[in-house]
Amino acid sequence: MSNFYSKPAEKTGLFCILFLLASVLFLSGCPKKSGAKNVLPPIPVMVAVAAYQDMPLQINTFGNVEAYSEVQVKAMITGPISKIHFKPGQHVKKGDVLVSIDPRPFEAALRQIQANMTKDEYLGNDMIRQAELKEKLFKSSVTAEDEMRKIKAQANALRAAIEALRANVDKAKLDLEYCTIKSPVDGCTGDILIYEGTIVKANDANILKVVQIKPIYVSFSVPQFYLPIIQKYMKTGKLLVEASVPGTEVVERGELSFVDNNINISNGTIRLKATFDNSEERLWPGQYVNVFFTLTVEKKCLVMPSHAVQSGQDGNYVFVVKPDKTVAVKPVQVERSVGKLSILKSGINAGDTVVTDGHLRLSPGAKVTIKDESVLKLNHP
């Protein structure tokens, strides 16, 4: 009797039969394919309509806020500080009292000079009377000419002394006025640099700093090749400058007020300044800001959202939604961007609907559905 497991040929044949039976059973269990072709669902996208719009010709850069004026306040006389009238960071008006210096020594000096002047005025009046009398006596040949001239010289000397005392009185009054230190401008005070009881010297250390912040400057620089363009548009009127603090959406508006008289040879830029009303005090000296310098406004520019423009190997392109809700790829040429909008040279027409979101799943001829049928309105930011 032959052994089954000892015959390799019969073993191999049995495996082949089992494999064919399993394949038949598997294929018989599979559903039959439908003759209809699979259709992909429409791809949801966001769109916008290309349109004509007036757009600013801008230079975008950055700058720093500068105080309109900055005054280092010093004492004009020597003496002890008797009182400080302000708090650090306080807003003050021009003429507000900031610091008082002890006025008593200056009041005493003024009274002394005034008393000396009064004494000399009495002596001077008497000397003038004597000089007039001597002149009459000389004309009557009663007194000598030398004596008359001597009395007149004394009278003139007293007149000059009285004038000198008047000047000293004015100086003493001025020193007394300097005992009250007032704000030279409308502005904001800095920190207190001296304290009550401190003896200050004339024209020595700073007492405080007052900065004027309404109005205020924004200083910025642009490449030198912009200078002829800026000069051209300055002749047409005032140029708008906008500034915003990074991280905020508030934009302050001002106007160009200064063009430096030389170009920075180290980096080839020209320094400019714009003046802002700063009525809300959103701009602060030393602050870093984004600057949008508008030279002019170009009429009827073809614009669309910048995020509609895609980059490829052959350049920029957009997906245009056709009336049958399929998309086509159209190459475009972008002239420049302003904020979130791109100005086009060529490629599409006004009224074309372009895809702004959902590009990744798109291909030419793909079917789309618009998420928001109220097409996005283009607004210059």
Describe this structure in words.
- The protein has helices at residues 8-29, 104-139, 145-178, 227-234; strands at residues 43-49, 51-74, 79-84, 91-92, 97-101, 180-182, 187-189, 199-200, 206-223, 240-244, 251-264, 269-276, 288-305, 310-312, 315-321, 327-331, 333-338, 341-346, 353-357, 368-370.
- By secondary structure, it is an alpha+beta fold.
- Among the domains are: 45-55 and 300-370, conserved putative lor/sdh protein from methanococcus maripaludis s2 fold (Beta Barrel); 104-176.
- Strands 1, 14, 15, 16, 19 and 20 form a six-stranded mixed sheet that branches. Strands 2-9-12-11-10-13 form a six-stranded antiparallel barrel. The chain has a four-stranded antiparallel sheet with strand order 6-5-3-8.
- α2 runs antiparallel to α3 (145-178).
- The longest helix is centred in the N-terminal third of the chain and has 36 residues, at 104-139.
- It is elongated.
- The termini are far apart.
- Residues 1-9 have low confidence and may be disordered.
